[in-house]
Amino acid sequence: MISFSEGPSDGPFPSRPASPRGTDDPTRSARGSSDRGGPAQPLLLVRELRKFFKMRSGLFEREKRQVRAVDGVSFNVAKGETLGIVGESGCGKSTTARLIARLMSPDSGELVFDGDGVGQFGGMALKDFRRNLQMVFQDSFASLNPRLTMLETVAYGPQIHGVSKVEAIARAEALLARVGLAPDHFGNRYPHELSGGQRQRVNIARALAFEPRLLILDEAVAALDKSVQAQVLNLLQELKAERNLTYVFISHDLHVVHYLADRVMVMYLGQVVEIGPVKPLYETPRHPYTRALLSAVPSMDPAHRTERSPLSGDPPNPINPPSGCRFRDRCPQAHARCAVEMPLLRETTGGHFAACHLDELP
Ligand SMILES: Nc1ncnc2c1ncn2[C@@H]1O[C@H](COP(=O)(O)OP(=O)(O)OP(=O)(O)O)[C@@H](O)[C@H]1O
Ligand code: SF4
Ligand SMILES: [Mg+2]
Q1: How much of the chain exceeds pLDDT 90, in percent?
Q2: DSSP readout, 261-324?
């Protein structure tokens, strides 16, 4: 059983964290001052993001095939919140993250960061946007340069942004200490000399060295043992409060997302099917897919456990998704309209949206 905090569990999912510790850390960022639009202005607006991967056609294939990895995804991320992104493997979570981080170019779509259009004329230059946003990936080893020590790794970011070597090393030492790695002990080690949990702490320190405002964590704790995972999650919560950070947290683990996220976005086959505050979304999921996804998770509380997952079969091929609602082949409530009309996101209760044709969403 997973336990992320010492408090009692609040039903089928683990307890949400207690208030973070104080903010007297010397490595704390002064980034709060870079807030331009105030708390009401979303930190990030994502509008109609699209990415289709073209598949190599066979010699005699006339039709060009493409994977609709991300197909018209729109959402906001508020300042200081953690937005969880969930959905089955292949639904487009990582592609969405990479598009936002501009590790790949979208086919279309718009990003607005704290009121400024990213890469637009008169907006925010791509290089400034990239400094404000950092990513942490699942594979802690592949993310690190095997030829750099941990100190050099963390100091690298500030150095390429013009900070002197002495200052960058001093910052790196403070950051390593802050993520729980004594610089005297770990600073001169190489990635292969650390455990997975320690490497992921270095990856977090390296990301923070850029003083970002937004961290995208793509399955960042998925490869860690449960106990190490809990420590890293708690560290992330503390860092977020200390440094006024905002998180986009991608995970297969619905327990972890429940623990960490303020709001949750559910993706299915390249689209958003539901988004809303964590509590109502977990307690009264509106979309049949979200309901199926949540019932498939073994509950933390034996009284809440369901015997069978109502989610049957695999997701359809993203090269040729079903017409209308993409979930219709697997949906127990599918009806005629679902085959001809794609449902749009509509608000059910305050800030809780679902894309489904059912008249009465539960
Ligand atoms: N570079 C690529 N070329 C072709 N297809 C790709 C590429 N990257 C991703 N895809 C496809 O796009 C779809 C979405 O992939 P993505 O990695 O975003 O899913 P995911 O939700 O992150 O899955 P997982 O939970 O397994 O990490 C999948 O069908 C995948 O096969
Ligand atoms: S739109 Fe139709 S097929 Fe899609 S989730 Fe709703 S009821 Fe099911
Ligand atoms: Mg992924």
Answers
A1: 73
A2: -SEEEEEETTEEEEEEEHHHHHHS--SHHHHHHHHTSPPSSGGG--SS-S--SPPPPTTSPPSS
